[in-house]
Write a structure and sequence with these properties.
mainly alpha; elongated; 13 helices; 341 residues; single chain
Length: 341
Amino acid sequence: MPLSMTARVPQLLLVVLLFASLAPAQDLDNPHPAGCEQYKKNSIPAADLPSENDRKQLASCVSVDLYFGFDHPADPVSARKCAYLERKKKVVDRVFGGAGMLAMIYANGKGAARNFNLALKFACEVNGASAENEGRFEHLLQLKSQHWTGNDFSLCDDITSGFMMGWCASLQERGNKVQRQRRLERLTAGWTPAEKQALSELQAVAVRFFEASSSNEADSGSGRTAWEIEARASLEDGFVQDLERFEKGRLPHFSPADFTQVDAKLNAAYTRLRALPRQDVGAGPVTFAGVKETQRVWLEYREAWVKFGRQKYPRVTAESWRAWLTQERTGMLEDAEKLMQ
């Protein structure tokens, strides 16, 4: 299920990071553009509002889930009705809810007839950094003047703050996670119960390693949450890609001597990290304490792969699994070293 509205988020991350450090923290009291005044009084079509029956059926709805359809088919019409309910409840704990979703729905013409005046009205109700409010408003005015007929306008198009960057990265990852799971299901459809159980056990350890690495070894700044999400997503994508490659017969093949050599390189990288000037928590994006914690979990992860490989790919030696994973981990340590210097 492609998320066309958030597909630009990964490309935005590097650009936004340049400005995120200059943007203030999310300020819910920031004024909206002066031009918003003329759109506040725009009337809402009665037919667009949820009925009493809708209110009952959608009592616990989440408009963003209905709009994008992460686990179920997308239902933009119900998303529109749900967003109106969220707006009335003054739901402010979600960026993608209430007025924010209504701005997207009316701009894109998905779930309701396209109406830029209403899109502008609701965009002016979205709390956010001043630069984002202004950028979003101007963006919608431009689309209106162009008589735009696309369907991928997003609140993520005009982000300037680390706060919003985290929300957008999270939204993108929700869609990617669904796709990742579907790929795994297709991949393992013909596996035996024992093989699927072995994979499940490996995944349990993988979750802990990916979490430790993304938390302890990701870049920082105002967009740290987004960087952590991106770092973890990259590891999870790589995990599925590795399995797909192995199922095509491209399995790791290393000798005991190869493992000895790559293990020495890993130890050398780890030693260099330990020798860097002491970095206390909060001193930078990555500290040796964080790397040390991650390294402990990684060793468990490496052995989990050996156990899984014994079940699924018995012809591959333990040294081959360890050498392959050690090569990968050495690259991660070298990246961490750059961040710590």
